[in-house]
Automatic annotation (TrEMBL):
This is AsnC family transcriptional regulator. It comes from the Bacteria. GO terms for cellular component: cytosol. Keywords: DNA-binding, Transcription, Transcription regulation. SMART domains: HTH_ASNC (SM00344). GO terms for molecular function: sequence-specific DNA binding. It holds the Pfam family HTH_24. Residues 7-68 form the HTH asnC-type domain. InterPro entries: AsnC-type_HTH_dom, Dimeric_a/b-barrel, Tscrpt_reg_AsnC-like, Tscrpt_reg_AsnC/Lrp_C, WH-like_DNA-bd_sf, WH_DNA-bd_sf. The lineage of its organism: Bacteria, Pseudomonadati, Pseudomonadota, Alphaproteobacteria, Sphingomonadales. One of its GO terms (biological process) is response to amino acid.
Amino acid sequence: MRKMIDLDRFDRRLLEEVRRDNLQPARILADKVGLSVSAVLRRLRRLREEKVIVADIAVVNPALTGSALTMHVLVQMQQAGPQTMDGFAREIVHHPEVTGAWDVTGDDDFLLRVQVGAMEEYDAFTRRALGEDKGVHSFTTLITIRNIIENDVARRPLRDR
């Protein structure tokens, strides 16, 4: 297990800002966190090198890209042994419909976030990815009605989105 990184109040404030919008210029970030531009750049470089910041990503609107339906799928495996679990984890990443996957505790073994454009696509996905995998015992689908929080974007007032 990795050791925790020592973060001071400036690091935490900087992380809060880049989680909200990682395209903010360093001069704006400097004003917001109370540091110089060079200190902000130095800290961001260190946070990336130490893998505190693991990716700079874009949150994409699925409705505008043909993936308007989001499902959360709870998957139970036949046996929760390492070979079965690792095999499923290795295979599920190859399905482009899966936009998030977690190994979880409880009655289920995995939680998947699946994004598709239509129910027919979801049906094809489940047949291909879950139905043909002999290690999968069962799965439960939760259909997302609306997104409340996605990476902090939902924390902004609606008029700002």
